[in-house]
Amino acid sequence: MKDQLVSNFGNGVPTERKGRGASAASRGPRGRTIVLAALLLVVVALAAAGCASGTYPVDIFYEMHYQQSYGPHEPPVLSAPAGSVPITGVQLSTGENPFTPGESVLAAGEYIYSTNCVFCHGAQGLGDGPVLNTMKESFGYGTDSQPYTITPNLTDSYVVDQTDAGLYGWITNGVTVMPSFAKLLSVDDRWRVVTYIRACLIDDHDSCP
What we know:
By secondary structure, this protein is an all-alpha fold. It has a domain at 97-202: Cytochrome c-like domain (Cytochrome Bc1 Complex, Chain D, domain 2). It has nine helices and no strands. The chain has helices at 2-8, 15-51, 62-65, 103-116, 118-121, 130-139, 157-160, 164-173, 187-202. The protein is elongated and about 85 Å long. The N and C termini lie far apart (116 Å).
């Protein structure tokens, strides 16, 4: 009996417990490897999510992307001092239109207008485009209860009396519900569409397409 105990405890560990201990030891590194791999996958997934731009491949909704809004954990932005933010476009009203109403300029201006402006202002610039019609019918915009701040009719005397630079300022900065087109149209394209509006929708120039 004594010899059997010596045999079983020759190395100080019972035979049965030694087997369980060896099995647990063999599983330990493997278990740790699985846990580390899972943690690594979580870290990679979080890093990938953090690198996402959060914007559309095509900047369709740029007005919302670049709007001024409050962050959920940010203090409110204080109002700017009176007179510190230009809202009338006076600063741009004395600029010089670099284009004259030639055929190529007016053809380019017509294309830009038909692509970006006709939906609100209409083909003849009368402010009767389908988007404004929908806004009037669905939201009352442009009615007696919610009149236009600035008329969308480009043949109205108020618009006609503006300088070319004043029209350029409206296109660049936006006005009332009209968004800024500074991020969509180059400087030259904005001047081209101004030239087209002046020559073809207001003055009926001979070179109009």
